[in-house]
Amino acid sequence: MPRTSATKYALLGLLSCSPSSGYAMKKFIDESIRYFWTENYGNIYPALSALEREGLAVKQRAQTSGRPDSNVFTITAKGEKELDKWLAEPCLPQLVRSELLLKLFFAGRLSRGKAAALLKAELAKHKELLERYKKTGACISEHGRGDKAYWLLTLDYGRRHSAMVCKWCEHSLSILEKKS
């Protein structure tokens, strides 16, 4: 059976948390799960229309004060069954696509200093992510719902991944320094 885009299931998952507009979904993604899953408006709105056509979500017009009306989507019972079915399936293997690793692979064309700068920038990025994960963890712990344990598990994955990248960058930098 061919697998469809996970965008559909990401949106069903968000709707299972609460009814939402496309704009609110994008905002929630950017503020919570962005470190492991992103979507753009160009994917969200067509996917929401498809969910409605498939009977997995229903749309209602919602009035908002001072702003244009918005479309708020709610998951249907059929949508919940579809989400539960997808959640139980094994995950497909994920291929790593890393611009850093691609650049590093060809970095023999650069000076060691420029190659080291790539690693230092990545190290700084992941140190900043580690700080952001601390704040996110505190927010989840304070405001989380019944799903809190699962949300914290995904956050822990991100934290551990960034910690590993920091160690790898530091190790790689030490190797470059020895070769100088």
Structure description:
- The chain has 180 residues and is mostly helical.
- The chain has two domains: 6-88, Winged helix-like DNA-binding domain superfamily/Winged helix DNA-binding domain (Arc Repressor Mutant, subunit A, Orthogonal Bundle), CATH 1.10.10.10; 99-179.
- 67% of the residues lie in helices and 7% in strands.
- It has helices at residues 6-17, 22-33, 41-53, 77-88, 99-105, 112-143, 148-179; strands spanning 57-62, 70-75.
- Strands 1-2 form a two-stranded antiparallel sheet.
- It starts with 5 loop residues before the first helix and ends with a helix.
- The mean pLDDT is 90.
Features:
mainly alpha; 2 strands; two-stranded antiparallel sheet; 67% helix; 180 residues; Arc Repressor Mutant, subunit A; 2 domains
List the helices and strands and how they pair.
Blueprint: H1 6-17, H2 22-33, H3 41-53, E1 57-62, E2 70-75, H4 77-88, H5 99-105, H6 112-143, H7 148-179
Helix pairs in contact: 1-3, 1-4, 2-3, 6-7
Shape: elongated
Architecture (CATH level 2) name of the largest domain: Orthogonal Bundle
What percentage of residues falls in helices of 4 or more residues?
55-70%
Strand coverage percent: 5-15%
Structural class: mainly alpha
Order of helices and strands: HHHEEHHHH
Helix segment count? 7
Radius of gyration: 21 Å
Low-pLDDT segments = none
Average pLDDT, all residues: 90
Strands, count: 2
Distance between the termini: 53 Å
> In the residues, how many domains can be counted?
2
- CATH topology of the largest domain, which one? Arc Repressor Mutant, subunit A
